[in-house]
Specification:
Phosphorylase Kinase, domain 1; Aminoglycoside 3'-phosphotransferase, Chain: A, domain 2; five-stranded antiparallel beta sheet; two-stranded antiparallel sheet; 11 strands; globular
């Protein structure tokens, strides 16, 4: 593939061979075998997903700065012709050590303790293939409403997937947010922490990748960990020992999971639209 050869040249890599690997729904991804070791490369259409990998690289670097869990090192990001690319350190899979889940939970809790004076981030980025608005807000309820819920509700309404009744329900939901969440300072979040965005490395401990970072309510990360099956019980116990979650956090899971469900509803439709409507309907 000519574009790959140009990317190899751009990265000054002497690639001996490469193999396709899974890289998500919108990317082509490869394991590169080079004279200096193995690397992970993913590419996609730079015109369709403007600066996606630049934003992802920034998120990975911020995770490395604020988190002691393993985060793949960014080697280079750039573009060739109509393709953009992200070159990362290759992580080898391993078997979990006995304290893997405890370590994962406590280290995530320590990351969530990182202080910030506002909710949001210094730039917008992506969650999946959707742009994510990170305009700064002083209050969590306004950030969650204006930057997370309302933009995706509008997309679904414009696509004919939500009715005017659903819009009224969504407004009632957003108006209720002020009284739902206990007051907490912003936490630095991975932003898309489901089971597909971590792995057990050769060290026996967890690594995180594919972030959608911002400063927000830490229950958002916890909601994501529970959305598609949940993490091990030891993860949550260790987290709570390090940075106890506010009372009732599990009752708020449908509220914190609404945002990723909206993302899935926009991208994939189907039962995700029904899931979103069901959560909104509880606020009539």
């Amino acid at each position: 593939m000519e574009v790959l050869q140009n990317i190899f040249k751009d990265c000054d890599l002497h690639v001996q061979r490469y193999e396709p690997v899974h890289g998500g729904d919108i990317n082509l991804a490869y394991c590169l075998f080079t004279s200096t070791g193995k690397y992970f490369l993913k590419i996609n259409d730079k015109n369709k997903y403007t600066l996606m990998f630049t934003k992802e690289a920034n998120g990975l670097r911020k995770l490395q700065e604020l988190c002691t869990l393993k985060i793949p090192r960014v080697i280079r990001e750039g573009s060739c012709y109509d393709q953009q690319y992200l070159l990362l350190e290759w992580l080898e899979k391993g078997s979990p050590k006995k304290d893997m889940w405890e370590n994962f939970g406590s280290e995530l809790a320590m990351m969530h303790k990182q202080p910030k004076e506002y909710f949001g981030f210094n730039e917008n980025n992506y969650i999946g293939s959707l742009e994510q608005n990170n305009d700064p807000h002083n209050e969590w309820h306004s950030f969650y409403s204006e930057c997370r819920i309302k933009p995706l509700v509008k997309k679904l309404f414009d696509a004919g997937d939500l009715s005017t009744t659903d819009i009224r329900d969504a407004d009632l939901f957003c108006n209720s947010l002020r009284t739902i969440f206990p007051g907490e300072p912003p936490s630095f979040l991975h932003g898309d922490l489901w089971a597909g965005n971590y792995m057990i490395t050769a060290s026996g401990y967890a690594a995180m990748y594919d972030p959608s970072v911002y400063f927000g309510n830490r229950e958002m990360d916890m909601g994501m960990t529970k959305l598609f099956g949940g993490f091990d019980r030891q993860f949550y116990e260790a987290y709570n020992e390090t940075y106890p979650l506010q009372k009732g956090w599990e009752n708020r899971l449908p509220i914190t999971q609404l945002y990723p469900l909206l993302v899935h509803a926009v991208l994939f439709g189907g039962h995700y639209i029904s899931d979103v409507k069901h959560i909104f309907s509880a606020f009539r």
